[in-house]
Amino acid sequence: METTEHGSMDLEHTIPLDIHSLGKGGSDKQQGEHSGEQQLNKDDGKVKINPTSSEQARKSQHRIPDNMEHWKDLLKQTIGLNKSFEVQVREMTFGSHRVALLFLSVFAKDASLTEIIKRLTYLEPDSIKNPDAMQAFLENYVPAIQIMKTTSFPKMIDEVLMGNTAFYVDGQSAALIIDAKSFPGRNPEQPSLEKVVRGSQDGFTETLLMNVGLVRRRLRDPNLRFEMLKVGRRTQTDVCIGYIDDIANTELVESIRDKINSIDIDGIPLADKQLEEMMVGGGWSPFPLARYTERPDVVAAQLLDGSVTIIVDTSPSAILLPTTYFDLVQHAEENRQNPFMGTYMRWVRYLGMLASLVLMPLWFLFNDKQTMRPEWLWFIGADKVGQIPIILQFLIAELGVDLLRLAAVHTPAPLVTAMTLLSAILIGDIAVKTGLFINEVILYMAVSAIGMFATPSYELGLANRIVRLALLLAVFFFHEIGFVVVSTFVFLYLAFERSFNAPYLWPFLPFNAAAFRNIILRIPLPLNKTRLSLYRTKKSRKQPI
After folding, report:
1. What DSSP state is assigned to residue 65?
2. pLDDT grade for 424, boundaries at 50, 70 and 90
3. Mean pLDDT in residue range 473-479
4. pLDDT by residue (tens digit) across 290-334?
5. Helices in 369-457 by DSSP H: which ranges?
6. Contact, 267 vs 232, CB < 8 A?
7. Is position 93 within any domain?
């Protein structure tokens, strides 16, 4: 499926190009392009990285030359004409004017460019008498919907690298930028991590324009804004900030915009994850500070609540900011059922997540110190220990689940079911029968794994696993004191954590009764009249009283 990407008309984005440094006399700078990156200078006590020759070449503005041969020479030095196979220049003559089309063959939409050329071939030799031939082509002869004129050579290069086509006329110091491109893409499919029984089955793809369209389809609000930015000196990755202008907090939007604009890096080829690390941070924290979603309906709902979304080109997911711990445990399926069943499903999910965190450590603690075990938990404990110490059994089982998950990712889809059945049944059964493991370890490990996979946020599920391992080791070394200390430490750590200045444990800390009620219960829509105070929205009411 062909999909047309945005960006062709973003002519305000300028990356200056020093043409003179790219002439025949610029060999020294070209040779320093590779070595200059690694040279460090100390200026005012700060260590700075010397820019490459290509970066230096973009620090000044230069007009497009009015001589085609000079123009092509610059293309050879800047974009690799005649050296890189996909860089193409199609020269023709229309209306007695020598014309060239500059494009990347891997992005060019053949049908659109062929139609433009076919229409231009009908021009008579003396049909363009206006000395400003470029303006005449723009106003009368080039049949394209999205087209803009530019006199900046760096802009032209930047737009061509984005997939657009440059229309150049010999003798004119300008070019027309034509949006005639198609990026490889796929049709929207059901998100793999956020499936629902009822509801829309479309999810984000790797094409930014399609993702924006999926959100626009659900939010026909004239106040919906999508701002386009670019990140990466080399990748020039498109990053889109989405928000509703009369709802979202202006300071939040400006903070996110400033964070993105301040990023100075070669590129973010891994898209949203690298962008998150550069702007949100978190360091070595295992807990995610940003919420990812593959569902456009979730993004639309969050935008209506006052959240801000970030969509990165080439990524099939969107980032929602700010994020709290309780945002990460919400799922779209709860809102696709009636309030009673939605609340029940939410409680079951919470119970599973809690079990994945503390079930194994508590069983291990009660098994090790049976005097602490309540009478009603008489069945807790193991009659047999096995040939391997129980703590090692738990650690090996944890690593086995991780290994099984990684193997499932790299196994072809038709073989995943067979592989998981063989691993879970044969390996687990044989380990128990040979006496290496005991049944209780396999049982509680399975329950914990199910609770982890029931966590809506994949990243939060992995973080909870680290907490479970820490609790297990604390119980093994320090018994009940270790369990209390590690639990308290994790709670305090989360209490002091923040995501874009939003408390991570809100609405529990600081406590907000109305918002906490929405966390515990799936409130019927007619009763859900106000927006969350966390976002400090301009309009707090969603429907009249």
Report:
1. P
2. low
3. 93
4. 999 999 999 999 999 999 999 999 999 999 999 999 999 999 999
5. 390-410, 413-421, 428-433, 439-453
6. yes
7. yes
CA distance 225 to 20: 39
User: Do 215 and 302 share a domain, yes or no?
Assistant: yes
Q: How far is CA 477 from CA 198, 371, 419, 474, in A?
A: 47, 18, 36, 5
Residues 123 and 271 in one domain: no
Helix (H) / strand (E) containing 489: helix 458-496
Helices (H), 219-338: 250-261, 272-279, 296-305, 332-335
Q: Say which residue the tokens 């804004």 belong to.
A: 225
3-state SS of 2-41?
Answer: EECCCCCCCCCCCCCCCCHHHCCCCHHHHHHHHHHHHCEE
Rg value, the chain, Cα = 30
* pTM of this structure: 0.83
Task: Take residue 319 and report the two structure tokens written for it.
Answer: 């980032």
**Helix (H/G/I), strand (E/B), else coil: 87:** strand
Q: Are residues 365 and 492 located together in one domain of the fold?
A: yes
If asked whether residues 156 and 247 sit together in one domain, one would say no
Q: How many domains does the chain have?
A: 3
| Structural domain boundaries, residue 260 | 208-323
- Give residues with Cβ within 8 angstroms of 341, minimum separation 6: none
How open is the CA angle 40-42-47, to the nearest 5 degrees? 65
The answer to whether position 45 is within a domain reads no
Whole-angstrom Cα distance, residue 296 to residue 535?
20
- Provide DSSP, 207-229: -HHHHHHHHHHH---TTEEEEEE
